[in-house]
Amino acid sequence: MKIVLTTVGTTGDVQPYFALAGALKKRGHEVRVASHDLHAERFQRAGIDFTPVGPSVTVAALNAIFEEARKVDDPLKHFDLVVKKLFLADPARSFREHVEVSKDADVVVCHRYDYLGQEAAIKNGKRWISVTLVPNLIPSKDIPPYPFENTGRWWTQVLWEALRYKSRATNRAVAAALKALGVPPRELGIAGVESPHLNLIAASQALFDLRPSWPKDQVVTGSWVFEEPNYQPPPALEEFFAAHAGADAPLVITFGSMGEANIAKTTVPNTV
Questions:
Q1: Tens of pLDDT along 89-143?
Q2: pLDDT tens digits along 217-266
């Protein structure tokens, strides 16, 4: 099969696609990845076909967006800012290039945030699958959104409806961008869209509980982890490892692309 994988965002949104692309290639499929140009080198170095779509994005530009978003306390407002400044940057160009990338695909696998990649697949008449990396974005009758306690189904539904209400501003911006492209309106979810055909939940069940009320088109696959056998750490990192080898070696847990200027606040000594 010819399979196109589309994703948007930073390394945390893109890294799982290395694993997916590699696994699909091993099974004999023809795979192409489409995303921001700054991710091109890593895919190409791994021998994965990559097509840049949308306006050029630099690491400095990403840092600026997330530094601005860091000042917003509400996670949905944080997401709203990233959508408008990154995911919907020059939507006409992104949509046009996505249409070209997926026109000969048998199936398109899209990040739930990649509204334009999804829309291109729909325009091309392709079956498309969504990918969700954060399970708690999927509404459930059983478990309320984080961080609320579960006090029963009635209150759980109230909380999910409140979250949908808070998502209106972002969804209005997305709907307006899609309308300007001349495409039919469609239902938008909470922080992204799930495919009406199949949504892959790429997360470990060790980290969350399955929701009995989820429909069968929500499929938990486990985490997608990509191993780079030929990876060579930068010299400075190798020196760091050598200097801290042994029983007291440091344990580092990062927060990925979550912006945080207060280093002391997110850094603790290794007590393990």
A1: 999 999 999 999 999 999 999 999 999 999 999 999 999 999 999 998 999 999 9
A2: 999 999 998 776 777 888 988 888 888 877 677 776 666 555 555 555 55
Structure tokens given for 54: 């949308």
Residue type at position 193? V
Q: Which two tokens stand for residue 266?
A: 């997110």
CA distances from 268 to 116, 183, 255, 260, 263 (A): 40, 49, 13, 14, 10
CA atoms within 13 A on the CB side of 100: 10
Alpha-carbon distance values, 182 to 113, 120, 176, 233 (Å): 20, 12, 10, 47
Whole-Å CA distances, 14 to 8, 42, 80, 93, 271: 7, 10, 19, 21, 31
Closest CA to 17 of 83, 114, 88: 114
SS3 readout for 56-104 = CCCHHHHHHHHHHHHCCCCHHHHHHHHHHHHHCCCHHHHHHHHHHHHCC
This prediction's pTM = 0.85
Domains, the chain: 2-220 (3.40.50.2000), 235-266 (no CATH)
Angle at the Cα of 236 (from 235 to 237), degrees rounded to 5?
Answer: 90
